[in-house]
Amino acid sequence: MNTTTKAIMPTTTRSQGRVQLYQPTQRPTRRAGSWQESSWGRVRVSGRLGQRHADLVESICACAIARREIADGGLELLVDPHQVRRVLAGGRGQYSAEQMAVLLADLRAVVVELETPAMGGERAIGGLVDHWLPDGGAARDPLTGTTRQLWRVRLGALLVELLRHDAAIWRDPAPIAALRSGVSQAVARHILTHQGQPQGGWRLDGLLDAVGVATGSEARRKARSRVRGDLDGLAGLGIVIDGDRVRLADAENRA
Predict the structure, then answer these.
(1) Under DSSP, is residue 220 helix (H, G, I), strand (E, B) or coil?
(2) What digits encode the pLDDT tens for the residues 146-198?
(3) 47-56, 64-73, 91-100, 123-132 — which is least confidently predicted?
(4) Which DSSP symbol is given to 250?
(5) Among residues 138, 165, 180, 192, which is most buried (max CB within 10 A)?
(6) Rounded-to-integer distance, Cα 137 and Cα 140, Å
(7) Is 185 left (phi over 0), alpha (psi -120 to 50) or beta?
């Protein structure tokens, strides 16, 4: 693999932030395969996927040092796990290898069924990560002079197809990973798939509907509170909360 210091992969794609692929929490439950439908498509997940899993997938793509196209249509990335763990830590120390291994095991095990315009409206079934192997060579740490093991990460076929055919989003994954609550992360991911915004911005409850927070529930009340508790982090992403309205601070520059 040839290495590069520039981003060689989009961080994510539009559909991943719009369909309810990842639950709006950092502590997801295991789903048994019920369809989640929206105007952007529908998804059915068998397994456990939450916002920390989204953080990891985005970090793998954004931190990739090199990529290799595989003859069967697959895609393998060369990744420095230290850089990925720094993103996952969100500026709060170091994310442990054990925590990351739990997320990877979930990503390896999950089965996703997806129907979106990006996939031609046809049903696609597959996974997100196929393997994560510690044999990608070594990288030198310029601060300590030591070397650390690089990893080869093969992306799942479904994720590869999204990266190839869906609208690509290039951004730093760290600011969203640093948000305190999963529902704030889900709302931010949804908003940042848009170039513009509705007149007057979005209704907060409309965004909570879009990311999968149940209406008329205690969870909904807590979700509103958690989003408002992440005001500073959201503002750093250009997302402003004003009462029950949410808007992009620089929407006029995005349109």
Answers:
(1) helix
(2) 788 899 999 999 999 999 999 999 999 999 999 999 999 999 999 999 988 99
(3) 91-100
(4) T
(5) 192
(6) 10
(7) alpha
Residue 143 belongs to domain spanning = 12-169
Residue appearing with tokens 């529930």 = 217
**Which phi-psi region, left, alpha or beta, contains residue 179 (left: φ > 0; alpha: ψ -120 to 50)?**
beta
Do 146 and 120 fall into the same domain? yes
Give per-residue pLDDT as tens, 99-130.
999 999 999 999 999 999 988 889 999 999 99
Domain presence at residue 255? no
Structural domain tally of the chain?
A: 2
Sign for the CA dihedral angle at 212, 181, 174, 125 comes to negative
Q: Which of 86, 90, 87 is nearest to 143 (CA)?
A: 86
Domain boundary among 145, 169, 193: 169
